[in-house]
Write a structure and sequence with these properties.
The protein is of the alpha/beta class. It is 38% helix and 16% strand. It has helices spanning 2-9, 31-47, 62-73, 84-89, 126-129, 158-165, 217-224, 277-281, 283-295, 313-324, 339-349, 361-368, 382-391, 413-417, 428-435, 437-452, 470-481, 499-537; strands at residues 108-109, 114-120, 131-137, 141-142, 146-156, 191-192, 198-204, 241-244, 259-263, 267-270, 304-307, 328-333, 353-356, 375-378, 397-400, 422-425, 461-464, 492-495. Helix 9 packs across helix 10 and helix 9 (283-295) packs across helix 16. The longest helix is centred in the C-terminal third of the chain and has 39 residues, at 499-537.
Length: 538
Amino acid sequence: GAELVFQRTFGEGNFDLTDGQAKERKGGMNILQQMAEVKRDEARLKASSRTAIVQSAFEMSHSAGFEAWIRNQKGLGTHGFYTADDLLRQSPFGGTLGGIEATGSCVTPLPPLSATAVSYEAHGAPADVLRVEAARAMPAQLEHGQVLVRMLAASINDEDMLRVQTPLTILNNFPPFTRQSAKWSAVRLPAVAGIEGVGVVVATAKDVPDPLADASDDVATAMRALPGLATKTPALDVRDWVIVAPDARAAPIGTWATLCVCDAARLIKVPAQQLPLQHYACARSLCTAYRLLEDYGDLRPGDTLIQNGAELPTGQAVVQLCAILKIRSINLLPDDDAFETTKQLLVELGATHVLRDNSKLLDFLEALGAAHPLLALDAIGGDAGRRLAVALRPNATLVVHAMTSGQVPQLSPSLLLHHQISLFGFNLANWVADKGHEAYAQMLTTLSQLVAADKLRLFTRLLNVADLDDASLMHALASSRAPVGRAGRERTVLLLGDETEAVQMAFDLREAIRKIEESEEDWQHVGDGGGGGGGGGG
């Protein structure tokens, strides 16, 4: 089944127990054995269809080598490469090259539209500045590279709150964010909240659909290879399902709304209904869990992992993936009234141990003896991160993937130098920028097989747009930051629409846009005729 396939393919086969034993760690082999194993790994990776393509430098073509060189310059501040798309996409609001606009030939007119949206006019505490608009007016047209998306679902998470609270552009005054490629984008106020979500494209600017879509495969491939025809605009079309690509430094596109106008380059096309809306809305959490387990700790079946923030979507996914991969998981929860309720939920998902995250933690870990964790996943930082580090065995790894406390883990020098704890930071947006949108979509395809087999579930609170008002929004914001009674801390997913509504809207918009364009052509003809007559009379 899906669980067995996942075990065999995850982590370069490290969790494949087909022959009854786990793959040996390279560190336990002599140098000749390690070299032979590395060679086998390279051959296996080249032959596989995993998310990343491994290609040795001497096998690269000239163009592939040049592209690799360009990628390696990113963020160094020494080289800048711009295409026409780059110039046109520079925002006049905070961009360094603003004011360059596409011609009107790219524009698609829109009929009067409005959306239910959660917006804010100034940065501040989310509970103070966010409000629900029942009819927020949408733009009158789609500009170069833009699409209109009928949103289906969006999650409420900590990063959403942070971007409402502060624009983060203050960081641009400090290295390394002083580099042009590392700057944070300003948010144009008033704005709609929301950085993540799933929706259906219902209208596009004229230059968004792939201009070579109707050409044969050979012709299209050859044409795209010609200089000047390469574009960063993805080939999106009406009725495509899309999710928002992770991009930490770009301004939020505003997914907490029934309609969203955004740059097509910031979207990723995904198969319709490949995942439930709830999972698509939390795609970043699922993929973060996947990457944390595959990229860090060099774990094997029977190893132990410890994490805090286990009640949140990323933590829930880690618990279930660990159960599939035969990894023992120690999961820490806030020491509050909701502990027992949340503990029961995590045990149902496959958690090995669920503990209160307090000063008594070390008493339990002492009893574990040799089973001390090899990997710790920190979603909180501060003193909570320190407790994770202290719990690790020597030469283990601590990965910080979020910092809800706003503080880095408080590690002592002895932990780093004498206990030799390795400290890493993980950001999914950086991973996607490096590996590409296709790799991100492939991860979701892999995870969708587990979801279909009921091996990867998410427990979140659902809020339908019909019930969305200021009061329900405040409750959703509160429950995502702290437990409400014994219900526990839980993420809220906004249900903003369904595919049937989106398809019908796409059909209605197509007819409305056609009529507008025909009307504009008629007026243009009248104007041309009037101008000609006036000239003749003069």
